[in-house]
């Protein structure tokens, strides 16, 4: 992930404007293409193109096409011919490391207030591999006493530029030493009009060539920033906050992404604006995309920005579905205001006002802003034991905690919602000391104050390595150490499939190779019995804390769907009331937008959301998870809703009624771990104890569809609805004769084996003084699952 580079002067880059490459025909460079090896130059160009794409400033189509072909061929001469027309300046470093610069072929138009990426070609005859430096007399400091010593103590009128080289990944911090390579500079002007700028280059003090040859004066045309007011109304005519992306005909994004400051994020194409707010845009014709998240249509409109004066654009966003009409209120229980893609300067992450804008702009009802390791000491100041004061009746921002980057993180990152106190006893209000190194005591502390607990990015650690899993089974079960399993040896453990299915050559034994092949065949099935690695930071200690009644939910929709749901299914098959919730982990797992993964909690028709009640609904399972393009607006089993239970006197048929809706298009993309193509139909499945018992195809047409299923329930079971990988409801529990759910002996053993594997992997990271209690707690949970296994039907 790229990180921003901040200038010593802090322009309000939320209004930053994109550059126009405007590379017009020009005389060929005096310097012909240089003979250099093609492979490293092609690698340099690949990184450069990724950076330009990230900045939202792709090359012109004809240049990009020629360059793609040259890079594929690793033809250094063709690469230079294709790219040199886009170069602003050519820097030559001679064998004595003296630097000179000449004008390149590109004509670049700057835009007031925005950071413009420009290309520089470096001919490195000296093989220098230290950092190239750029400067300008017009780029002197403005703030922090930068004008001290000027006449009258006033800022210099000559200081209107900011110039720097972009040296963050995927670009490199210094030169490679290759004879030819290309680098990116960022130029920004606070003024408009014609301005001459002197660019200066060196690779260290005293390396400038004689005769001012390391200086290059360029007369730039700097177009003015046009303030554009946005009038934004919701589908019902109410003022709201919208999501906007502006592009020109070449696909360049405005405002310019490079070095944006909050509330606009440099890693986004889009910006968010409330009704009446403004955005600075360049003059000319732009394509504007606008909406409010996946429940809304993503609309397009051509807008023309005048050359001068202010402008106004009015939009009304349109819904294709409104879950609030059915009493559902959406939330992303895991977002961050600091760490990962966020910057750490000028503030340590961004402020509540910035995150609220993004939550509301994506049409969420609830956004849980979790303070965690990075910037913990700074961000914890925004915590209140209630929704943040910026919240609105139907759009809440709440600060809580993710224990991640400290404490118990190696036993699974934990989301703690609805805390009254965010300071763990003995921690002194920091993340550096006093926190437990396993998650059980953490959850006990949170539950005592009425909080709700669950594991984040669950599949991280639930992944499967077929070879390691096979070796582990062989090592545990191969009593005679002949490298293969007999039927008697295999019967003492939990195989991923039946012995007959694994023994493909029918020799009466299962070899390691056969075991690996068998694991590969079943590891993507739901459910499956392969023991995961449990060496990550997701749902790791979940088997232990769920058994203790401490864990309320498992997070889904931001990691791979099969391991997320597989873990959840096995625990529910043991009769534990674990629920599923939806999250994004923005901007860590995904920096695309908040609310890519969502949970929709049923609360009835409301004028104002109560956060504690919303969390209770999440923990009780009165909800479904989705990417926002798939909805279960009604789901009942024998009249009972998700999160409820019905007790039947005997086995028999029950009726399921549901109302579902699927988006025709997925313009914002689907949640991580579950890509969905543009297809006409979605498969809606009824799941009983993890297995599909009925299904129907439903059109993806932006319309609601009523479905009815009649299914047999033979024993106490959990019943849910899903569309893989977009949608899953929480279950209705159906008990028969008051008996608890004991759906699968193999599921219970799987959970027990997972605890044993977790102890092997992670016991060493638990603090020595905490380890005895942890081991006793783990062993108690193992015995509990083994007892449940004995209570399950034979062969289940």
Structural description of this entry:
By secondary structure, this protein is an alpha+beta fold. It has 15 helices and 38 strands. The strands form seven sheets. The chain has a 15-stranded mixed beta sheet that branches. The chain has a five-stranded mixed beta sheet with strand order 2-1-4-7-6, with helices on one face. A hairpin with a 2-residue loop joins strand 29 and strand 30. Helix 1 (38-55) runs antiparallel to helix 2, helix 7 (466-477) crosses helix 10 and helix 14 (745-762) runs antiparallel to helix 15 (771-791). The longest helix is centred in the last third of the chain and has 21 residues, at 771-791. The radius of gyration is 30 Å and the shape is globular. Residues 1-30 and 142-153 have low confidence and may be disordered.
Tell me briefly what this model is.
The protein is of the alpha+beta class. Helices cover 20% and strands 28% of the residues. The strands form 7 sheets. The chain has a 15-stranded mixed sheet that branches.
Secondary structure layout:
Blueprint: H1 38-55, H2 61-73, H3 76-83, E1 87-93, E2 99-103, E3 110-111, E4 116-124, E5 133-135, E6 161-165, E7 180-189, E8 193-202, E9 215-223, E10 226-233, E11 241-247, E12 253-254, E13 271-274, E14 278-281, E15 284-291, E16 299-305, E17 311-316, E18 328-335, H4 352-361, E19 366-371, H5 376-379, E20 396-403, E21 414-417, H6 439-448, E22 452-455, H7 466-477, E23 484-485, H8 487-490, H9 499-502, E24 510-511, H10 512-522, H11 542-547, E25 553-556, H12 561-573, E26 579-582, E27 598-602, H13 611-620, E28 623-626, E29 630-637, E30 640-641, E31 645-648, E32 652-662, E33 681-688, E34 691-699, E35 704-713, E36 717-723, E37 727-729, E38 732-736, H14 745-762, H15 771-791
Parallel strand pairs: 1-4, 3-9, 10-17, 18-19, 19-20, 22-25, 25-26, 31-38
Antiparallel strand pairs: 1-2, 4-7, 5-8, 6-7, 8-9, 10-14, 11-12, 11-13, 11-15, 15-16, 18-27, 20-21, 21-22, 23-24, 27-28, 28-37, 29-30, 29-32, 32-35, 33-34, 33-36, 36-37, 36-38
Helix pairs in contact: 1-2, 2-3, 7-10, 12-14, 14-15
């Amino acid at each position: 992930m790229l990180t921003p580079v901040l200038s010593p002067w802090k322009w309000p880059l939320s209004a930053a404007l994109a550059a126009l490459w405007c590379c017009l025909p020009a005389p060929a460079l005096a310097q012909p293409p240089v003979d250099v090896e093609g492979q490293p130059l092609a690698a340099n160009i690949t990184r450069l193109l990724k950076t330009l794409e990230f900045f939202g400033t792709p090359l012109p189509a004809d240049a990009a096409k020629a360059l793609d072909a040259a890079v594929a061929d690793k033809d250094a001469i063709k690469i230079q011919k294709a790219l040199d027309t886009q170069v602003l300046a050519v820097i030559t470093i001679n064998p004595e490391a003296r630097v000179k610069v000449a004008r390149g072929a590109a004509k670049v138009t700057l835009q007031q207030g925005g950071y413009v990426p420009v290309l520089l070609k470096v001919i490195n005859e000296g093989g220098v591999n230290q950092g190239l430096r750029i400067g300008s007399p017009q780029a002197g400091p403005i703030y922090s006493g930068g004008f001290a010593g000027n006449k009258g103590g006033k800022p210099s009128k000559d200081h209107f530029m900011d110039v720097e080289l972009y040296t963050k990944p995927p670009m490199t911090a210094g030169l490679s030493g290759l004879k030819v390579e290309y680098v990116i500079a960022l130029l920004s002007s606070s003024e408009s009009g014609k301005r001459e700028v002197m660019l200066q280059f060196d690779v260290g003090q005293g390396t400038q060539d004689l005769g001012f040859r390391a200086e290059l004066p360029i007369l730039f045309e700097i177009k003015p920033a046009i303030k554009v007011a946005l009038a934004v109304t919701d589908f019902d005519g109410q003022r709201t906050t919208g999501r906007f992306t502006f592009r020109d005909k070449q696909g360049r994004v405005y405002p310019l992404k490079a070095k944006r400051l909050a509330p606009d994020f440099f890693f986004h194409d889009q910006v968010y604006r409330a009704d009446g707010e403004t955005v600075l845009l360049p003059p000319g014709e732009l394509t504007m995309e606008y909406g409010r998240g996946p429940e809304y249509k993503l609309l397009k409109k051509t807008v023309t920005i005048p050359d001068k004066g202010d402008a106004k654009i009015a939009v009304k966003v349109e819904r294709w579905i409104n879950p609030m009409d059915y009493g559902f209120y959406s939330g992303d229980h895991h977002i961050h205001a600091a760490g990962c893609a966020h910057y750490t300067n000028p503030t340590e992450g961004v402020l509540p006002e910035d995150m609220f804008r993004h939550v509301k702009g994506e049409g969420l009802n609830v956004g849980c802003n979790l303070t965690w390791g990075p910037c913990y000491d700074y961000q914890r100041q925004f915590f209140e034991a209630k929704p943040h004061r910026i919240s609105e009746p139907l759009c809440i921002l709440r600060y809580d905690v993710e224990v991640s980057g400290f404490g118990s993180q190696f036993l699974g990152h934990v989301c703690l919602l609805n805390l009254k106190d965010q300071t763990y006893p003995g921690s002194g209000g920091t993340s550096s000391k006093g926190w437990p190194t396993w998650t059980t005591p953490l959850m006990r502390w949170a539950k005592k104050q009425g909080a709700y607990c669950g594991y984040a990015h669950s599949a991280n650690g639930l992944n499967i390595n077929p070879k390691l899993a096979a070796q582990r089974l062989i090592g545990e079960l191969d009593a005679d150490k002949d490298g293969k399993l007999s039927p008697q040896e295999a019967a003492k453990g939990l195989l991923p499939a039946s012995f007959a299915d694994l023994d493909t050559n029918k020799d009466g034994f299962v070899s390691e190779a056969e075991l690996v092949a068998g694991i590969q065949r079943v590891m993507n099935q739901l459910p499956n019995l392969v023991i995961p690695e449990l060496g990550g930071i997701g749902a790791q200690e979940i088997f232990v804390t769920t058994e203790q009644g401490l864990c309320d939910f498992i997070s889904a929709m931001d990691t791979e769907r099969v391991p997320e749901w597989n873990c959840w299914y096995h625990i529910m098959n043991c009769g534990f009331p674990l629920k599923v919730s939806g999250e994004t982990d923005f901007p860590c797992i995904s920096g695309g937008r908040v609310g890519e993964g969502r949970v929709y909690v049923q609360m009835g028709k409301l004028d104002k959301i109560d956060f504690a009640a919303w969390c209770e609904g999440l923990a009780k399972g009165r909800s479904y998870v989705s990417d926002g393009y798939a909805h279960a607006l009604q789901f009942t089993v024998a009249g009972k809703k998700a999160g409820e239970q019905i007790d039947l006197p005997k086995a028999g048929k029950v009726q399921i009624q549901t109302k579902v809706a699927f988006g025709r298009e997925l313009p914002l993309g689907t949640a991580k771990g579950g890509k969905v193509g543009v297809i006409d139909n979605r498969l809606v499945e009824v799941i009983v104890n993890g297995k599909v018992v009925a299904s129907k195809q439903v059109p993806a047409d932006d319309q609601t569809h009523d479905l009815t299923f009649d299914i047999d329930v033979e024993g106490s079971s959990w019943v849910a609805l899903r569309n893989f990988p977009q949608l899953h409801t929480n279950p209705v529990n159906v008990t028969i004769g008051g008996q608890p759910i004991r759906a699968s002996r193999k599921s219970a053993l799987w959970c027990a084996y997972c605890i044993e594997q977790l102890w092997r992997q992670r016991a060493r990271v638990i603090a020595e003084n905490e380890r005895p209690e942890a081991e006793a707690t783990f062993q108690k949970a193992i015995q509990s699952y083994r007892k449940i296994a004995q209570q399950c039907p034979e062969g289940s």
